[in-house]
Each structure stands twice: as structure tokens, then as C-alpha cells.
């Protein structure tokens, strides 16, 4: 996977590059929007990490230009702390996801992986399969080793998201944002208790667990 | 160096006399002030219209008097022509010579083709030599041109009376070598018109003087009102945000403007105050967590010095601590922004029932995980105006608190419309509750009550809820819970109330 980081703060960019490298992701750097556009022309990345505030050309402008040229590469938008309006303007300009600075590197990696995966996984599947787990999106039936697992609607959505991101770490914030569609900071273990209930239905009667907790990061579904 | 006018003005003021220079008329800007300019525009329009009217009257009266003169001359000519046919040239001459007093406005005369005057009436004689000379010259010209009749208009230049007279007349050839003229003195008609013009100009000058006077008065009145506004704005510009425009309760436009500006200033002052407060508060609020982080890192350094294998754990702990600090900062920042903005951003009509359902679904398991009962009573189809994410954050904080501070029993989440159609989210727990004396201050920043200090948290949760409530023009109500439950109580009821849509 090839990532393009467009960020004027060189230290932050280098740290990102380092963190992505640890996760096996190669990343190039561009110092502003104009360099970013040039880099995209030279070689199309799989995901762009785009900072909002930059000299010469800011993130929103670059994103609008990219989208107006018909480039549909997934874009993760970065913005400074507490600027809710930025999220709205970033998503409006055509960003696919959004992360507030300061962020944990694990959160960044998880979101980049999710975005890269989304490109090919967004295809209209009617059945999702992970190992011996099978989810029918039409009849909304979930089976593991051909035994039906009875899920409530939210558990179904949660599992669907995990199955679409199989093998990746997904963070609690991502789950709250993508499954519940809320952007707030839960102080307690809200997501954990939902995961543990899903886990009890998914793994309890089987010898091999699928839903793993990744310490300090979040959760991961493995085949 | 002040300009001479203002220097003089100061000296005059110092003398304690009437400050003439403060009168508006001495202000160089006076003629550029709007009311005065309006007065000038009005006066120009007035003068223009007056000129148009007089032009029209002049045209109308002169046409009329000319027609009248023509018909009067016609009548006299006709008499001469009749006499010419019945009595011949001698009859005409004697008629001219025997003009009676009634005909005094007419100058009449007869002459032959060589320019020799044959007869003149009194009027024509009286008016001096120019009258026949001019007419006879015109008659010769007429004959030369081969015409039988010709109009002559002329001013007489009587040596007795400079202004006399304006004649309108005609020369007619009656015989082969015989011409007569009849001219009527029209100066009486002109005199009437001149009287009218004089009256109108006098009246016009009066109007202009009164107009300028009124304009000056209006101008002073308006500029006094404007000065009340500009004076206050100048003070604001110099940093006095408390300056307000005096309102006279007359309900005129200047009052309306003043009230509007005062409202804007009040809002500005509040926002500035909030911003200043927020800045101070953030600096203050972050000092203690930062120094705590610093001392922990110092201790970690000592630990790692003693036992290098602890390095990883020490760093992980420091990272946790930093995350906690960032989270605190983020919350303080969010609260400050909400307070400074005076309203939550992006407020829309949203489905409050759905929000309550979602929060119930999210927190039911959290409560269950701690062995608490979770109940909810959520009214259907409740709509509210607000920012869903901020309200979700506020409700999450209330629910977090309820779970955190309730060791046994249960939590109830309710959504209802009150009798005033307000939208009320309430959370009731069976925990120990909060003593009445403390309820007023638990929503203040970083306030943590004695018995809660052992539990994690920094004391910003309720501050955030209150900020969110206020940013939605709502409120946070804190009251007693359901009562004693298993030797503890009375529990706590927190309610986030949003105004009716």
C-alpha cells in the first residue's frame, strides 16, 4: 500500500511516516497542497493523509481540486484540536474520513488501513465471509460453522463493520463513529461492553476465538 | 499643531463665553452633512419648478396679450379701411387727427410712399420722433418688398419716460401712395407680469431663507443624534466596551439605531469577556495537570535510572497521562468555545427520540456490566433543535456519572416533553446523591466532591453538560433522586432541558 502524507509540519509528517512504516505501509511526503497535487500526478497513492492548514495551498483547496479532476482516491483529513467546523468543511470538500490532532498513531494507522481496504471492499457484496463466519446482508442471517448466531440490529452492524475490516485493528472511536454515527468522546467503556456482548455470541460456543482485543489500540477480527 | 480655528475655539471656550464655534454652522463639514444637503436639494428643486411655472405663465400671458392687441388693432384698421372706401384718403387723415381720448393707448398715423407724414394722433406725437421714424422706415421697407401689410413691434424711446413703451402695431397700405399704422402700447400688460414676477421672487427668497433656516435646525438636530452615536462608537474604538448610546424613548429611527447598536455592543462585550475568561481559565486549568505530568515523568526517570527494565512501563504510563491531559485540554477547550460562541454550531431540528434511544442502547450494557439495572422511558416523536454530537456528549457525561457514582440499584433514562413543551432528557440514579449545598457548584470546572476523589475523572463532565445546555438556550437541572435505596440515597436526578421547538 502506498500512502501520500501532505503536511507542512515536517516533524509530524516524519513521525507519521515512521508509524505507518511499522505497520508495513510505505508513505511519501509532500509539504503543501501544490506539492501534494504534483505528487499525485507523478504517482497515484492508495490513500492520502491531508492536513488542513498549510502554506501555499491548504488542504480543503487541494481536496476540492483533486475531486474536481475526478480523482476518487480515499482521503483522510487531519485538523487541529476542537475544530468541529473543520470536520464539516473537510467532509463537504470530499474527504472520506477525518481525524483530530493530536491523535494516537495506532488510530491513524487503523484509519488508513480501513480507507485503503474500503476501495475494493465497497463492492456490492450480498454475503460477507471471514473464515467459517458468514453474513448474509440480504436476509440478515449470520452463521458460524453453519450454526445461526442470533444478533440484535446494532450487533449485526458492528460485526459487519469488523468483517469488512478483517485483519485490521479498529479503534473504539472508529466504531462509535462508523457504527453508531456519533462523534463524541465516551469517557467509559461504552464500546468495550458492546464488543464483549458480540464476542460472547460470536466466540462462546466455538473453540477458536475470532474477535480479539488489541492492547492499546482496539479490536481486530481474524479469520 | 492644532489648526487655527480649533485654537481660537479653545481660547473662546476658555473665556467662558458662549461657544459660538461649537455651533454647527462653523463646522467645515456643515455643508456636507446629509440633512443640509437634502435642504439644498429641496431648494434647488423648488427654484427649478418655480422657473418652469413662471416660464409657462409668461408664455401664456404674452400669447394672450398679443392676441388681444391684434384684435384691437384689427378693429381700428377695419374702421380706417371703411373710411378709405367711403370717404377716401382725406377721411382717414381727419379720423387720425380727431382721435378721442378713449383711444389714448393707440398711436396712429398716416404717411405717403415718400415717407412724408400726413397725420398723427396725440399719442404718436407725444411719444417723440422715434416712433414715426421707425414706423415710416418699416413702411418704406414694406413697400419695397411689395407687401400690403406688415407687423411692427418696437419700444419707444420717449425722452420723458425711459421705460415707455412697448408697442405692438401694424402698417397697412390703404391707397396707392397712402399707408396708415396703428400701434398699441402693451406696457400695461408687461407691468402686470412684472408685478407677478416681483411677488413670486420675493416669496421665493423668503422660502429659500426659511428653508435654509429649517435645514440648519434639522441638521443640528440630526447631527446631535448622530454625534450621540459616533461619540459612543469612538469610545468603543478606544477600548471602552461599556459605552452605551443614551436612548430617549422617542421611538424614532435614531433610538432604534441606538438600541440596535447597544445590543450589538452588549453582545460584543459579553463575547470578549467570555474569550478573556476562557483564555485565563484554560491557562489556569492546565497548570495543575501539566505539573502533575511533569512530576510523574521525573519520578519515572528516577525509576528507570534504578531499574532500566521499567522504561517501557514508565513511557506507557507517561503516554496515558498525556492522553488524559489532552482529553482534559480538549474538554476545557470545547467548553470555552461553546461559551465564547454563545451558541452551539450547526444546530438543526433533530430526532430527540432517536438520540435517547441510541444513548439507552449504548449505556444499557455499561450499566449491566456493573450489575446495575437500566430502565428507560422515552417519549416517541420528540423533535428538538440542536447539535446532535454535542448533546450526545452531554448525555454521555450524565450517564457516565450515573454509572460511576451508583454502586447498587439502577439508572433510569427518560425523555419527555414538559408541560411547557420543553424537551427534557433526565437521568436518575440510586446512588448517594449530592447534598443540596453542593449542587450549585458541582457543574463548575474541576470541582470534585470529597467522596468522589477516589474515582477517576477530573471534574469537567458536568461543566461540559452545562455549557452544552446553555449553548442550546437550555439548562442543566440537578435535583434529588428517587430516595433511599439499600441504605444509601437519595440518589441524583440530572436533567438536560432544551427549549421547545
From TrEMBL, chain A:
One of its GO terms (biological process) is regulation of DNA-templated transcription. Residues 125-223 form the OmpR/PhoB-type domain. Keywords: DNA-binding, Phosphoprotein, Transcription, Transcription regulation, Two-component regulatory system. It comes from the Bacteria. Residues 125-223 bind DNA. One of its GO terms (molecular function) is phosphorelay response regulator activity. Transmembrane segments: none annotated. The keyword Phosphoprotein applies. One of its GO terms (cellular component) is protein-DNA complex. SUPFAM superfamilies: CheY-like (SSF52172). Residues 2-116 form the Response regulatory domain. The modification 4-aspartylphosphate is found at residue 51. The keyword Transcription regulation applies. It holds the Pfam family Response_reg. PANTHER family: REGULATOR OF RPOS (PTHR48111), TWO-COMPONENT RESPONSE REGULATOR (PTHR48111:SF76). This is Transcriptional activator protein copR. It comes from Asticcacaulis biprosthecium C19.
Automatic annotation (TrEMBL), chain B:
One of its GO terms (cellular component) is plasma membrane. It holds the Pfam family HATPase_c. It catalyses: ATP + protein L-histidine = ADP + protein N-phospho-L-histidine. It is an enzyme of class 2 (transferase). Gene3D superfamilies: 1.10.287.130, 6.10.340.10, Histidine kinase-like ATPase, C-terminal domain. Keywords: Kinase, Membrane, Phosphoprotein, Transferase, Transmembrane, Transmembrane helix, Two-component regulatory system. It is found in: Membrane. Residues 220-273 form the HAMP domain. One of its GO terms (molecular function) is phosphorelay sensor kinase activity. The chain crosses the membrane at residues 36-59, 199-218. InterPro entries: HAMP_dom, HATPase_C_sf, HATPase_dom, His_kinase_dom, HisK_dim/P_dom, HisK_dim/P_sf, Sig_transdc_His_kin-like_C, TCS_sensor_his_kinase. Its EC number is 2.7.13.3. Residues 281-501 form the Histidine kinase domain. The keyword Transmembrane helix applies. The keyword Translocase does not apply. PANTHER family: HISTIDINE KINASE, SENSOR HISTIDINE KINASE YKOH. This is histidine kinase. It comes from Asticcacaulis biprosthecium C19.
Amino acid at each position: 500500500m502506498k500512502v501520500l502524507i501532505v503536511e507542512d509540519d515536517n516533524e509530524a509528517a516524519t513521525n507519521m511516516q515512521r508509524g505507518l512504516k511499522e505497520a508495513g505501509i510505505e508513505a511519501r511526503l509532500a509539504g503543501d497542497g501544490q506539492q501534494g497535487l504534483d505528487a499525485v500526478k507523478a504517482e497515484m497513492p492508495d490513500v492520502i493523509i491531508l492536513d488542513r492548514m498549510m502554506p501555499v495551498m491548504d488542504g480543503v483547496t487541494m481536496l476540492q481540486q483533486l475531486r474536481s479532476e475526478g480523482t476518487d482516491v480515499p482521503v483522510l483529513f487531519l485538523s487541529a484540536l476542537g475544530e468541529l467546523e473543520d470536520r464539516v468543511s473537510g467532509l463537504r470538500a470530499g474527504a472520506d474520513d477525518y481525524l483530530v490532532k493530536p491523535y494516537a498513531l495506532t488510530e491513524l494507522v487503523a484509519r488508513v488501513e480501513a480507507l485503503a481496504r474500503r476501495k475494493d471492499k465497497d463492492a456490492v457484496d450480498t454475503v460477507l465471509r471471514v473464515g467459517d463466519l458468514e453474513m448474509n446482508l440480504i436476509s440478515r442471517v449470520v452463521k458460524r460453522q453453519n450454526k445461526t448466531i442470533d444478533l440484535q440490529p446494532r450487533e449485526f452492524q458492528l460485526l459487519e463493520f469488523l468483517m469488512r475490516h478483517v485483519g485490521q485493528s479498529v479503534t473504539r472511536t472508529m466504531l462509535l463513529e462508523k457504527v453508531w454515527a456519533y462523534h463524541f468522546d465516551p469517557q467509559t467503556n461504552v464500546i468495550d461492553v458492546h464488543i464483549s456482548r458480540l464476542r460472547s455470541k460470536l466466540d462462546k460456543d466455538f473453540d477458536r476465538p475470532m474477535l480479539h482485543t488489541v492492547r492499546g489500540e482496539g479490536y481486530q477480527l481474524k479469520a | 499643531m492644532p489648526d487655527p480655528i480649533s485654537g481660537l475655539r479653545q481660547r473662546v471656550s476658555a473665556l467662558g463665553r458662549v461657544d459660538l464655534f461649537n455651533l454647527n454652522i462653523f463646522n467645515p463639514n456643515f455643508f456636507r452633512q446629509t440633512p443640509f444637503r437634502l435642504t439644498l436639494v429641496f431648494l434647488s428643486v423648488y427654484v427649478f419648478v418655480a422657473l418652469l411655472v413662471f416660464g409657462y405663465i409668461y408664455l401664456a400671458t404674452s400669447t394672450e396679450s398679443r392676441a388681444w392687441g391684434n384684435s384691437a388693432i384689427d378693429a381700428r384698421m377695419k374702421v380706417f379701411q371703411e373710411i378709405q372706401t367711403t370717404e377716401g384718403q382725406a377721411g382717414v387723415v381727419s379720423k387720425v387727427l380727431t382721435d378721442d381720448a378713449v383711444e389714448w393707448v393707440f398711436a396712429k398715423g398716416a404717411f405717403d410712399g415718400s415717407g412724408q407724414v400726413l397725420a398723427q394722433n396725440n399719442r404718436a406725437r407725444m411719444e417723440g420722433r422715434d416712433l414715426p421714424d421707425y414706423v415710416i422706415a418699416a413702411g418704406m421697407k414694406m413697400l419695397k418688398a411689395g407687401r400690403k401689410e406688415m407687423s411692427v413691434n418696437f419700444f419707444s424711446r420717449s425722452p420723458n419716460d425711459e421705460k415707455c413703451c412697448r408697442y405692438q402695431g401694424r402698417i397697412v397700405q390703404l391707397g396707392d401712395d397712402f399707408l396708415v399704422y396703428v400701434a398699441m402700447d402693451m406696457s400695461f400688460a408687461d407691468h402686470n407680469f412684472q408685478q407677478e414676477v416681483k411677488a413670486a421672487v420675493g416669496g421665493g427668497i423668503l422660502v429659500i431663507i426659511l428653508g435654509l433656516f429649517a435645514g440648519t435646525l434639522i441638521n443640528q438636530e440630526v447631527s446631535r443624534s448622530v454625534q450621540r452615536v459616533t461619540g459612543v462608537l469612538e469610545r468603543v474604538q478606544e477600548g471602552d466596551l461599556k459605552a452605551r448610546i443614551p436612548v430617549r424613548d422617542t421611538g424614532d429611527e435614531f433610538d432604534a439605531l441606538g438600541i440596535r447598536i447597544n445590543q450589538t455592543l452588549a453582545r460584543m462585550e459579553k463575547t470578549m469577556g467570555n474569550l478573556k475568561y476562557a483564555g485565563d481559565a484554560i491557562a489556569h486549568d492546565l497548570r495543575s495537570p501539566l505539573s502533575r505530568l511533569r512530576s510523574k515523568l521525573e519520578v519515572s526517570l528516577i525509576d528507570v535510572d534504578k531499574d532500566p527494565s521499567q522504561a517501557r512501563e514508565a513511557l506507557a504510563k507517561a503516554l496515558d497521562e498525556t492522553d488524559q491531559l489532552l482529553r482534559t485540554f480538549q474538554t476545557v477547550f470545547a467548553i470555552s468555545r461553546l461559551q465564547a460562541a454563545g451558541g452551539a454550531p450547526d444546530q438543526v431540528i433533530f430526532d430527540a427520540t432517536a438520540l435517547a434511544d441510541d444513548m439507552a442502547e449504548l449505556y444499557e450494557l455499561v450499566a449491566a456490566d456493573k450489575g446495575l439495572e437500566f430502565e428507560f422511558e422515552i417519549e416517541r416523536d420528540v423533535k428538538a433543535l440542536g447539535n446532535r454530537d454535542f448533546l450526545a456528549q452531554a448525555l454521555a457525561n450524565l450517564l457516565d456519572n450515573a454509572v460511576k457514582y451508583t454502586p447498587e440499584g439502577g439508572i433510569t433514562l427518560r425523555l419527555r416533553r414538559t408541560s411547557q413543551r420543553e424537551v427534557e432528557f433526565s437521568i436518575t440514579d440510586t446512588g448517594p446523591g449530592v447534598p443540596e449545598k453542593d449542587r450549585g457548584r458541582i457543574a463548575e470546572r474541576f470541582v470534585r466532591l470529597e467522596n468522589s476523589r477516589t474515582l477517576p475523572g477530573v471534574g469537567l463532565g458536568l461543566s461540559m453538560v452545562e455549557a452544552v445546555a446553555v449553548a442550546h438556550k437550555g439548562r442543566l437541572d440537578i435535583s434529588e433522586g428517587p430516595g433511599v435505596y439499600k441504605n444509601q440515597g437519595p440518589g441524583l436526578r440530572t436533567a438536560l432541558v432544551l427549549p421547545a421547538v
